[in-house]
């Protein structure tokens, strides 16, 4: 080997060593990329008509989930009181990060341009919509004219028939059973409506006067296009049935609320209402002996009750913390949170049979109740409704009360309701 060849080999060897040394240095000394710690953030949540849902128990269960999975998020619940009411916050330009309300109110906030289609965000976070009961997702979509998804359901208020066992025992009448029709319940109410020792016991109150009774028939006072739809045979049937209930001697419509009659004065035999299980557990401590049966049906609409009052959580379009707000929705709708809430007596919007069967299982006050009766009926699909729906229903109730008092007949009640609703809609549209 001559001198030039030897020098070349040495240089190549040295160069190779440097390259290998450099590569080895990168493999051994390069720092692993650190996961960025999210900055602490406080999100504000305001609600409308959802205060009973977002109580201390709900906040505790959701708070534990957030602390475990998203500890950087603090969720501030704004009370539905003066100064922090949802509509006041929006009017002052101080919209919250998250909103909880029922599906029927979503159209109102859509028109305020506070909502947006969240489905792409949910997909990016792998939030599986098939986990939910399909009809509840449809209820949320119905608030959009484009089939958009503005949020996700977090709680469902079903319809059920609650009864006071003592009143039935005192009257020697059988308890309500599952599968009853309205006529059956009406006849049973007559048996337990009595005056005993000067105390008037009422047999039945259908809840929200005529409104919940009308919903299984898929009728409304106003349709989605603000057309008045109250003057027809279906509404006539509802008015007449409600009058038959409230004209049972001793079962008149009175000032005391149906819930107070049932839970406080304990003078109401049967109450048709939404999910009031947690309130009933407390009332039982004060001497109320109650149970639950399937909501009554119309023969042509068996196993069907009215609109499910679905509480929906949405992210405000104005929030500066969109991803964190979606994390809150993820926590609220997680199997873990929904299972715990179900155990405590709250009906979940998830389709899981396991979660459904757990209803009330951790509450000693619910363990011996006929809770499976609740699931024997399904809600009628929530209609695509007008933001003015409530205005029409208020007029319908007032006209029903005039009919009940005997100042007008049923045909006059419906005809006058139709005219008054039309005038109200004209006034609303003229003010815009």
From TrEMBL:
Pfam families: SBP_bac_1. It comes from Paenibacillus ginsengarvi. It comes from the Bacteria. This is Extracellular solute-binding protein. GO terms for cellular component: cell envelope. It is found in: Cell envelope. Belongs to the bacterial solute-binding protein 1 family. Keywords: Signal, Transport.
């Amino acid at each position: 080997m001559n001198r030039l060849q030897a020098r070349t080999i040495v240089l190549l060897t040295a160069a190779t060593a440097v390259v290998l040394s450099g590569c080895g240095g990168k493999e051994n000394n390069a720092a692993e990329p650190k996961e960025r710690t999210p900055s602490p953030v406080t999100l504000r949540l305001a609600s409308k008509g959802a205060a009973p849902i977002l109580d201390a128990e709900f906040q505790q269960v959701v708070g534990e989930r957030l602390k475990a999975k998203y500890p950087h998020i603090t969720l501030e619940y704004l009370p539905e009181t003066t100064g922090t009411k949802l509509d006041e916050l929006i009017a002052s330009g101080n919209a919250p990060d998250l909103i909880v309300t029922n599906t029927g109110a979503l159209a109102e906030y859509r028109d305020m341009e506070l909502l947006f289609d969240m489905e792409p965000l949910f997909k990016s976070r792998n939030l599986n919509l098939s986990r939910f009961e399909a009809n509840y997702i449809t209820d949320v979509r119905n608030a959009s004219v484009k089939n958009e998804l503005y949020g996700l359901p977090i709680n469902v208020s079903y319809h059920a028939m609650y009864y006071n066992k003592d009143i039935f025992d005192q009257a020697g009448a059988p308890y309500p059973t599952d599968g009853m029709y309205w006529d059956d319940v009406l006849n049973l109410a007559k048996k337990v409506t009595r005056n005993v020792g000067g105390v008037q016991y009422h047999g039945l109150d259908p809840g929200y006067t005529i409104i919940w009774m009308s919903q299984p028939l898929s009728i409304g006072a106003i349709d989605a296009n603000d057309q008045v739809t109250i003057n027809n045979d279906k509404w006539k049937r509802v008015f007449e049935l409600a009058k038959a209930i409230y004209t049972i001697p001793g079962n008149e419509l009175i000032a005391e609320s149906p819930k107070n009659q049932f839970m406080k004065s304990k003078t109401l035999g049967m109450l048709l209402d939404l999910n009031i299980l947690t309130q009933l557990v407390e009332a039982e401590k004060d001497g109320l002996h109650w149970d639950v049966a399937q909501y009554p049906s119309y023969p042509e609409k068996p196993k069907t009750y009215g609109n499910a009052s679905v509480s929906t959580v949405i992210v405000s379009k104005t929030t500066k913390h969109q991803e964190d707000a979606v994390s809150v929705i993820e926590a609220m709708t997680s199997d873990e949170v929904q299972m715990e809430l179900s155990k405590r007596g709250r009906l979940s919007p998830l389709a899981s049979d396991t979660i459904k069967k757990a209803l009330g299982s951790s509450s000693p006050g619910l363990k011996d109740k006929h809770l499976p009766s609740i699931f024997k009926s399904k809600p009628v699909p929530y209609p695509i409704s007008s933001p003015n729906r409530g205005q029409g229903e208020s007029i319908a109730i007032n006209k029903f009360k005039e009919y009940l008092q005997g100042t007008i007949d049923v045909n006059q009640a419906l005809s006058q309701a139709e005219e008054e609703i039309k005038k109200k809609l004209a006034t609303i549209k003229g003010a815009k």
